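Ticket #4471: structure output looks truncated?

Reporter: J.K.
Steps to reproduce: submitted the chain below (132 residues) through the standard prediction queue, then opened the result file.
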Amino acid sequence: MLVGLNLDPARTQMVSGFVDTYLKLQEAEKQEFQAELDKIVEPQQKEGVMKIVTSWMEEGIEQGRREGKVELVLKLIAYRFGQVSSQVEAQVQKLSEAQVENLAQSLFGFTQVTELQTWLDQNKPQPSVGEE
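Returned output as attached by the reporter:
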């Protein structure tokens, strides 16, 4: 149905993101969905459907990759300095993927937890418009 609407890519992404967020399928439901999709999607629409599904997968992979990096950095911090405070954890969670990578490299030079806190204070993510 989404492919048949002929929406521009931004709107398609918005709608597919909404559906993906609120429609979590179990394995049996995924198989049933795929079987129904195979029955109703015309061959010329399959390419459009695959673009949508591929964008969902790419977004999920990117999110998983970032979350994995954040988790690893938090484990490195805990290993190096002991249990991390919820404030430090929240600050690390807000970092961009590039900032998380930079923090991971910087951790090797830190000898005290105060150096970590200074780094986090100096590398706060910029608030988005309307977030201040």
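Triage note (M.O.): checked the attachment and the full token line is present. The CA atoms of residues 2 and 12 lie 7 Å apart.
Status: closed, working as intended.
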